[in-house]
Amino acid sequence: MSDAVSRGWHYPRIVAHRGGGTLAPENTLAGMRAAQARGLQGVEFDVMLAADEVPVLMHDEAFGRTVPGRGAVPLTPSANLVRMDAGAWLDPAFAGEPVPLFADIAHWLIAQGIWMNVEIKPAAGFEALTGRVTAEHTARAWAAKPADAVLPAPLLSSFSEAALRTAKLAAPDIARAMLWSQVPRGWQATAESLGCTAIHTNHRHLTAALAAEIKAEGYVWPHGLHRQRAGTRPSPPGLGRRWDLHGSHRSLSRRLRLTHRGRAQRPRCVKTSPLRVLRYRRAP
């Protein structure tokens, strides 16, 4: 395993979920700008392939939640997707916010010095293809970074083993992380075969024994839940309310998700909504 994909967490500890959390439409440029405006140095977002195999930012395969109408991302050309309204579902103030191309977002983030955790989110039946294409685009964007860019290389993550496997073949020097809602038996063999640097999982399903097992293998995992008042920046590691799971928070990664209750506010009141983030902690 090369230094570029060595195990451990080498990235920002606080990462905005789907770009702007609840402050702006998920998986949009408006979301990325919301994270940037609040001092976040890293963002996580979802990438799916359009019908023409062009990667776009999208979480749901089917239309209806974040974009209007009936249809599906893998059945729609990217030229049509980028003309769709991906903002009005959250608030009328975001009406007209387009579905972005992954290439555009990747180049914008790198230019702004913002690290990216690219979650490969394949539509059913397109797992291997989505992994390969997303990895190729990620590697291409990273290779084109400015010579004076100072930020960690991107991280690819996915719930799909098939997607990560083809991502590894297409861009072996881009780090990978396996996503599991619940870590299965035999996880070590899967993580090893995929060359993963980290494991992302739901902390609610972790036991003390499993946490220790993951730590012993040199991986990091996200855990914890943190709510932060709106209009404030995420507190630095060691501050604010925390959940110490199995006494491991000082040596394993922490994933703290800022959530919200109620409807997101309009931009003029945007500071009254909390920013949803993921927090990680480095392994020793």
Task: Give the SSE layout.
Layout (H helix, E strand, L loop, with lengths): L13 E4 L11 H9 L4 E8 L5 E3 L20 H4 L20 H11 L2 E6 L6 H17 L11 E4 L2 H10 L4 E6 L6 H7 L4 E4 L6 H9 L60 E3 L5
Helix pairs in contact: 3-4, 4-5
Describe this structure in a few short sentences.
The protein has 7 helices and 8 strands; from the N terminus they run βαββααβαβαβαβαβ.
Description:
This protein is of the alpha/beta class and 284 residues long. The chain has one domain: Alpha-Beta Barrel (TIM Barrel). The chain is built from seven helices and eight strands, in the order βαββααβαβαβαβαβ. Strands 1, 2, 3, 4, 5, 6, 7 and 8 form an eight-stranded mixed β-sheet that branches. Strand 1, helix 1 and strand 2 (42-49) form a beta-alpha-beta unit. Helix 3 packs parallel to helix 4 (127-143) and helix 4 packs parallel to helix 5. It is globular and about 50 Å long. Mean pLDDT is 79; it is low at 223-284.
Please give a handful of descriptors for the protein shown.
alpha/beta, 284 residues, 7 helices, TIM Barrel, disordered C terminus, globular, 13% strand, eight-stranded mixed sheet, 24% helix
Assembly type of the shown chains? single chain
Q: Characterize the overall form.
A: globular
Q: How many helix segments?
A: 7
Radius of gyration: 18 Å
Low-confidence stretches at least 5 residues in length (pLDDT < 50)? 223-284
CATH superfamily: Phosphatidylinositol (PI) phosphodiesterase
What is the count of β-strands? 8
Strand content: 5-15%
Assign the CATH class.
Alpha Beta
CATH topology: TIM Barrel
> What structural class is derived from the secondary structure elements?
alpha/beta
Order of helices and strands: EHEEHHEHEHEHEHE
**CATH architecture designation:** Alpha-Beta Barrel
Largest sheet composition: 8 strands, mixed
